[in-house]
Amino acid sequence: MDSLLEDEEYNWKEVILPSLIPKVAEPELERETGERRRGRDILIAIDHGSNSKHAFDWALAHLCRLADTIHLLHVVPKVHNELLCETTQELMKKLAVEALQVAMAKTVARIVESADVAKVICKEADRLKPVAVVMGTRGRSLIQSVLHGSVSEHCIHHCKSAPIIVVPGKEAGDESVI
Q1: Which residues form a coiled coil (predicted)?
Q2: pTM of the model
């Protein structure tokens, strides 16, 4: 293969990309540093509940933008349950496809085994330094939350590296935000 000289002309043809792969313009420069902007990291805590799916949909519709990376986090009990892990992997694959289709966002998924969901979410937020941590409510009443504790309440008080967004659960009959 011959190398081109600096002033030498050459022929080229633009390649038409499939419609699923967006053409992305060169990122703008940051005002303060002059460096190229890159996508943001957004941590979304998920489970198999409808409120969790509603929080995911809310984050796609209101928070995510092109070039962002969505970090899906599901905390499972320490009891190793192969069926639960497989079901969670399928859920995460489905959500990753939806994130690409709706917000053109890249998705990274992690399943963590732990008994303390709230502490894991806070540790992941400390590790990732996301722009936000998004989670749904569990649907408990105020009294139940006080007696049993609330994952979102613990995260609000103990997560210092990112703002916590708690998306209220949708009521029966409400339509999804997407």
Answers
A1: none
A2: 0.74
